[in-house]
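Tutorial, part two.
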Amino acid sequence: MEEPLIGSFDAPQHSATVARYRDLDTEHLETTADRILRLWAERSAAARENFPDDVALIRQQAGRKRKLLPFRDLFAGAENYLLELKPCWVMSPLVVSQTLPPERLFDVVIFDEASQVRPADAMPAIARGTQLVVAGDEKQLPPTAFFLASSPEEEDAELEEGAPQLAAVEGFESILEALGMLLPARTLEWHYRSRDERLIAFSNGHFYDWHLTTFPGIGDTEVINHVLVPHRAGFVGQEESASDEVREVVRLVLEHAEVRPQESLGVITMGIKHADRVEAALFDALRDRPDLEPFFTEANEERFFVKNLERVQGDERDAVILSIGYGKTPEGRLLYRFGPLNLEGGARRLNVAVTRARRRLTLVSSFGTVDMDPNRSMSEGAQLLRDYIRFAESGGSNLGERALERPVLNPFEIDVRDTLARAGVSVVPQLGVCGYLIDFVVQHPRQPGRYVLAIECDGASYHSSATTRDRDRLRQEQLERLGWRFHRIWSTDWFSKKDESLQRVLDAIGAAVRIADNPELAAPNSAEPRLNRENGAKASRGKRPNVRRYQPIDAYSHRELVEVVRWISTDTLPRTDEEFLVETMEDLGFQRRGSKIVTRIRAAVDEFRATDPVT
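Running the prediction step on this input gives:
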């Protein structure tokens, strides 16, 4: 080649450079978090010295059994120390006025799920900050009755002196809609929740005009299923909550708890009555299945739920059972009465319901697409329900008129495909439903349909990325997070050293097949975080003192407890007193938080703090 830089291109070396960039970029994010923690620890420690009156007031209140100050008064009396100790506060907009004094206390106020917050309810929070970020989705639920609970007197109390008066909010249903007319907007296009893009494809096409960037899953065939419950003629009262559908939902829930207990589960229904009937029937069924009770305990991090679609925004689970509930008349007629879906905003409610699952969604209904006349109901919600049933019936492949056309392969990609075919490798080109398409996917040679390797070329999709981080780290990282193994073909290398480049592809395919057959051979996924606070801390600590674990608290001397606390600190990560307490308990093997245990360890932490003020 005439260009010396191109002629000397070395694919392995360039790939190593990209990998080094990914490592450094990730390390930068992690060390930034550590720097912020250290800065916070230093500022909170300094605040104890700078605001002794605030600290004294808090300790005085903590020691009282009764006649405690209202928190708003406590905050006003110890504002400086509390804001240094807790620079980030999270609360409902409905309790801001009850909790915080009417001052501009914060640099930034952030609203999440802003489509559900009325403008009037947002004003107290807005008044307490100097900058504002409003995050939400106008295609999801508007404010519900939950946000209308305030009395007129409470609403008057919200209009405090100094609160911003935004006349433009009149006539808007939410703060998201109101401020969307006033503030600059930024769209977050990458979708991370779904482990398979079929779970978001329907909404991406029907609600977001394919603007969301999504990523193909590894090939699980049980991502979207439709369970059709046969109609039984002559049964009355099925129009609002079909009894056979209730029983089928309960069966599916019990099956999930037995077969996939490691996956969280939620049941979403269209109507409240159907949700109540499903919950009652499940409660009765569990009396005969005590072995499944651990799955349903409220102590689980993501506990099981049964909710109607008005209450699920913000929730997500590994698996979701979406039960329509509405059935046919005894004569077999469908009445097209779909509750909230028929109302204004019904389409937005459906959008929320069908996007709550991370891994799989099962749609349960007493009717199918063939039972619905597309000209019968004019409501947008009912029309989209029919489209979604058709989508679920196809396993998530039939998007009808919303389906996107596949891009045509460029000459480079055609050459890669044909060369691999001559080498005996059949590939699937442009895999994906929408958004981000994988250039080529290799299937297992003895297990058709099982994907083992994603092959990316540095073609148009690679060069169209706006940033190096997008094209060289985030896309590959997301694919690996979804379970893909990944290989990059560099076009310069392919054209100048084709045989060597081809051999690297064949080697990658061979390794991917071997790992698919024996997962224990896999190296750690590079998409996993490099440093976890717990694991990284333990790995970087010094030699642990010779203090026995799993002993009663009285078996430890005060000196031994201080030594354990000091050893925990050797990883140099900043910690609060509570974090020292928790990590010391974990190290010594204490399962219960007894008062004597807490008192002894806190005394050790206090002595350590006194002798090592840097922490």
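The chain has four domains: 88-186, 221-402, 411-521, 533-611. In part three we will examine how such features are distributed along the chain.
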